[in-house]
Amino acid sequence: MSLHTPRKKPRIHFDDDEGLRKSHSTSSGPSSPLQKQREQLPIAKGRDALIREIRENDVTILLGETGSGKTTQVPQYLLEAGMAGKGMVAVTQPRRVAATSLAARVAAERGVKLGSLVGYSVRFDEVCGADTKIKYVSDGMLVRELLSDPLLSRYSVIVLDEAHERTLRTDFLIASLKSIQVKRKQAADGKRKGKSPSSEINPLKIIVMSATLDAEKFSRFYHNARILYVKGRQHPVKIFHTAVSQTDYVESALRAFFQIHLDQPPGDVLIFLPGQEDIESLEKTIISHAKRLPVSVTNVLVCPMYASLPPSQQARIFSATPSKMRKCILATNIAETSITIPGVKYVIDTGKCKEKRYLSKDTGGGFDTLLTRDITKASALQRAGRAGREGPGFCFRLYTEEAFNNLAASLEPEIRRCSLTQSVLELKCLGQDLETVEFMDPPDINSVIAALKTLWIIGALGNSNELTPLGRQMASFPVEPYLARIILASSAHGCTSEVIDIVSLLSSSSSLFLDISDQRDAIASARSKFRHPSGDHLTMLNALRAYQEMAETENKSSRKEWCKQHFLNERTIAEALKIRDQLRSTCGRVGLDWRASKKDSEEPVLRSFTVGLVQQSALLQPDGSYKQLMGHSVVKIHPGSTLADKKVPAIIFDELVYTNHIYARGVSSVPRSYFNGVTPALPNGS
Ligand SMILES: Nc1ncnc2c1ncn2[C@@H]1O[C@H](COP(=O)(O)OP(=O)(O)OP(=O)(O)O)[C@@H](O)[C@H]1O
């Protein structure tokens, strides 16, 4: 590799530069139709044996290298073998982008329209029909289905894919499916013996899949379940490590990208970074460096990819790369498992990720936060596995081989490190207690107590931890319990219409207000039109109302321009309006009139929000700081808030962001008296 990086930076030396040169002599072969591709996948050779084993065993643990064909093929084999019966095959995915893109791929392989035989279901978006037999579903959505169908009787087979990720929802399913399987077996046996002839319940098959799984542990949990291995991968991935460790991973990623771009044959590049901030900063530097390249060099198309990016923008990574361009995808670990991004030949792995962790009150927290940390070996293997899906691939790790060897094998399960509030509520609705469920790894007792306390404070649980009617109503809403509580509180204050509008905006995957750090003055002046003196919640409502008024008369391009001028994210509005429809229909189901609206809505709306956000509130101290009402942390108002630098007696906020300070984001000012009587835990007059 010759030295061509911009800004004349020294090249990064990888441990097998020579090997890289040689490996390009391998051709990926001519492209073949989808069916031929299916037959060539490593898993295809073992198809019959696999079906036989699954038929014979209640639970099967399937291990196979990334790209061997597990996720796309196993559900189709089950269908072809008639194992879906009258029911469906569900395939769970920890991430929505994986569920939607896999469903599209499998629909294409079967030559059917997405939403017919093959569909998907993720939060706020479902593309399925009466004839759907294979459903890719986010783990969270399957948990929600449990609430209305505790035996998941619509499914004949449930495939827990990427089980190694051990998200809270996956662990919840791992535990629930174990007892559901027993109950369904008993029901089916009873039916055979004529005890319950009307029962439509059939036995359930469980398949657990991953490329990087502690298979023995899963097997033990499921009564020594059968472990199967799929051998081999379709295309090789050559892995390179840096010769020496790197100090600045963003800078190193920049250099590695241009080394590939200038020296290597065509093929898109996927760079893994920990979070949105790093992605935005690298995006800017890549674009500015690319502009300075000679005109003869292929153009670069940068596509960011992180969870809070609207789904339509995320979908850009899957669209074909224009000719004479090289796509450079900058992604968090949301692109790490399951997905195939067509065109990606090179992966650059910074070795870093953000991990959600619950900061306990003892450490000044009491909330989930994201911390940057080293990835695990399992993640490194998954990241490398995103190359080599359509032909030979290359993975450049920006850390040494020794550092790789020292990485932890896998991440601590989410159940051991995240807030459990929603899960506790869901279990309560199923008549269970988190403490008594047989989890693969039991949760930390302090987290369970914190969740129970939150649910008690917002009225979901009574004094003996029993589920209240209010709690059951909260669980019906597809949002966090505290947001559901706000909606329910709005009923008493007669402002459900306004509150649902704001909650819909808060539940969207990206923020309504664009926050571009170097344009804060321009943003502040554009936003002043909508500013509500009480703070961000009613400012959001004003902006939404202004948008809707304008949209009544303007066409699509003027609407877009208007949003640009006002630094509003139009996609967030579109998403929020969809969410609003769902929340309105949930209101209908729980007997709430969503049309209830107040002309002067400030007090009723803020009173409703205070009920749900009582744990997310802080009081002004004599020294000018804000101290949490329920907790020990001193928080600052986020600079992006309409209340930044303001001193008001009390604030409520949507979230805390943990950087060099603890910042409250999405802030409104409320009179202290609003806290009176909101919760039984608060002393009078606080
Ligand atoms: N959207 C797609 N476009 C092109 N090829 C695809 C697509 N999805 C899957 N493939 C092809 O099918 C192969 C198998 O994909 P599949 O997701 O089934 O593998 P897997 O074993 O589940 O991998 P992983 O463990 O990484 O999820 C890929 O390597 C790729 O060749």
Automatic annotation (TrEMBL):
InterPro entries: DEAD-box_helicase_OB_fold, DEAD/DEAH_box_helicase_dom, DNA/RNA_helicase_DEAH_CS, HA2_WH, Helicase-assoc_dom, Helicase_ATP-bd, Helicase_C-like, P-loop_NTPase. CDD domains: SF2_C_RHA (cd18791). Residues 253-431 form the Helicase C-terminal domain. Keywords: ATP-binding, Helicase, Hydrolase, Nucleotide-binding. Its EC number is 3.6.4.13. One of its GO terms (cellular component) is ribonucleoprotein complex. This is RNA helicase.
